[in-house]
Amino acid sequence: MSVPTFDIESLEWVNPIAVGFYSGEEYYEFLKAGDEVDVIWEFLKFLGKSYTGLKVYAHNAAGYDNKFILDCLSRHDQEVNFAAGMGKLVWVGPNISFEDSYLLLGRNLATCCVAFDVPRKLEWKHDTTVNIWEMGPRLDAFRAYLRRDCISLSEVLDSFTKKLVSNFGVTPSSTLALTAIKAFDRRFYPMKKIASNIEFEVFTRAATYGGRNEVYKRYGESINFYDVKRMFMSCYNTPVPVGKMSWRNPNIDRGTCAEAMVKVPDMLVGPLPHRYQGRLIFPTGEFKDWWDMYELRNAIKLGVDVTLVRQLEGEEVPILEGFSNVVDQLSEESNADLGRIWKLFGLRLSGKFGQHGIKTEIKHVRDLKEGEYAPLDKNEIYHEVVTSRNGRPSPYIKPAINMRVRAEARIRHLDALLSAKDIYYCNTDSVYTTNQLPVGDNIGDLKLVDYAERAYFIGSKFYGYVDKFGRLKQKTAGYRDYQLTEYDLQRVLRGEEIPCAFKRLGDWKDVLKGQGVQLVDRTFTYRQAELSNRRMGEVETSPIRLKGGRVVN
């Protein structure tokens, strides 16, 4: 029997008109034949009668399908538990679990169909959906679309399950991250052998930082865009903290992480991360913080003066390497889309280690305390509240491991930047340079991903360039709705206000005009923040300089 799945279709995304359900053996559909029909309840009554104890998936259930399920069950006074928020809700009576396959696969269904080589989704224009009794001859195409969605998702999940069982001896859990860490626990290293070190968590988290994202030169020509192939997984071969930590006398050649006072000399690329006024920066000058010992030792090699204040130490073993090798092999043997799923699977392992104990939990109104008020359903029966693990160690949260992997990734990324010399921009695992760098096919090697005849680096995650074919491309986090021209990029680089086309209106423009909506040109101004992650010059930038915890000129 294959994996059971369901799919809900609606008018304008809010009024359900049809439910498709594939049991793993047979397909059923429930159509709203009239205004009085509650199609969701008809579906649920069928499940409750015939499929007790079932686990059934929908793609993007947390953001869509499960909201209809929750609303219907609450209207009919049915008890619901939330095993993983809206991503896994359980109808208590018949013990039926409604789960989100998107949280497990991380890709849309069309991409998953290609990845696992199953029949692809059929096309259907959702903005043309009408009531079932109004569809006429289009009803057959609608029903075929609904059926294919359910069966294709089932076949995708069935294929993924078989791959997980054969390679790791586990079946899917509620999320890809949880599946990855259970696969690691089952085949490579027992989680119970890794010390939680919960009493030192505040220090290891203080020594945990994100990736580097910096502009070095704001305009350039003939620039090569490089990425490091599977950067984080390439760092899984480094020893990570697994043993019980303890305080030790500071020793730069020993230890796992430390609080230190550092003096970073003037240099183009600051080697150590630091949080300053809510921003991650890589400054020069004098400042104090917590860092992973690998990062401190690397900084010393680059000329940084390090004075250790206090230090933690625990046993370190390269426990992640075997997992990385298997996932890398699976990725190499797969097509491009499946390779991306395996890549995400590998990345989520270290991310799961680094999760926080604070989380959200969904409670019934009867279980709420005063002030806990964030209703999820229109009847205000279920509410989302913030909870914590109250000092209880999680079997999966090991932030020291995440600290080490991130530190090693920054070290390797810094090595790539320094080898490039003439650099313009970077982001976590990328190097944009006029130099030609060695590339390779192995994990951790650089790969050439694009080339720019001309490039305009406005700020972090905000740039545009003309590629070798003369096409203008833009990466504009926070401004992605605005289609820029090269002249716009030149002007916005100077901080000018410019008119821009609003892309997301698309085909809706004519519809809106027909409804009497007046459309006006949108404008915006890009202004450099008072504190960026670097000092922004007219063309080149430089690191922020600190002394005594403050910015100095």
Question: What would you say this structure looks like, in words?
Answer:
By secondary structure, the protein is α+β, with helices and mostly antiparallel strands. The chain has two domains: 5-174, 2-Layer Sandwich (Nucleotidyltransferase, domain 5); 175-357 and 394-471 and 545-553, no CATH class. The strands form nine sheets. It has a seven-stranded antiparallel sheet. The chain has a six-stranded mixed sheet with strand order 11-16-12-15-30-31. The protein is globular.
Descriptive key words:
553 residues, alpha+beta, Nucleotidyltransferase, domain 5, 2 domains, 7-stranded antiparallel beta sheet, 6-stranded mixed beta sheet
Coarse shape: globular
**Rg estimate, integer Å:** 27 Å
Strand content: 25-35%
Structural class assignment: alpha+beta
Mean pLDDT: 88
Assembly type: single chain
Structure at a glance:
By secondary structure, the chain is of the alpha+beta class.
